[in-house]
Structures are given as C-alpha cells and as structure tokens.
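Chapter review: from sequence to fold.
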Amino acid sequence: MLTQFEYKQLGPSFLVCKPENAPVGNPFYKQKVVFTGDLEGWDRQTAAYLVQTLGGDVDQQVSGKTDVVVIGKKPGPSKMEKVIDILASGKLLVVMNERVFNLETLPYLHLIGITNP
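The token string follows.
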C-alpha cells in the first residue's frame, strides 16, 4: 500500500493502469466518489488513488453531482446530512460502507500494486 508521501512523490505517473485505460464496468468508472469518516483498512490517499485508477473522480464534499459515498467510522455530520437530503430528493446515490468498498475493489487491487490484500 502506498503511503501518503509515496503517493505524492509518485503521483499519477506511477499508476499501473492509467484512468483512461480503467476497466469499463467497474463500480467506480466515471463516478464521482466522496469518502467520509475514518477508514480502518485504508489511508484516504490510497483509497482515492484506487478510485482514480478505476476511472472515478474523488470529491471532498457531497453534492448533487456525487454518485457514490463511502462511509467509514465516525462520518462527518454535514456530509451525512447532505446524503440524506440527496436521497430524500429522489436522486440516485450509492451509499456503501468500507466492507462493501473492499468487496467492490478487491478484483482491482493489482492495478495499484497490491497483490496480497
């Protein structure tokens, strides 16, 4: 797993799979993703790096343009309030916890150099 320092040093040039070559049909392809709360098995940069490798875009704030929200422990109250507002408005929004994120990303971990999770 890349540390935050390694990610900043290596950046997008390190990607084993460039986002433009991301596997089409993966759950994050062309999706705007927001993380909220503490992720137990990931640092935020590595999780974002994986989403970007899969052709997704990572945002800091939940908005009407958000497609996927990954919820860790102790999620931010303002982000959760916005999630509830968006869902109440009838907009489609995928909300998943870290366990589901792990299951959805497992087939793609090799793309960021993780071979033995």
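Two observations follow directly from the output. The beta strands are 32-36, 57-59, 68-71, 94-97. The helical segments are 4-10, 44-53, 77-88, 98-105.
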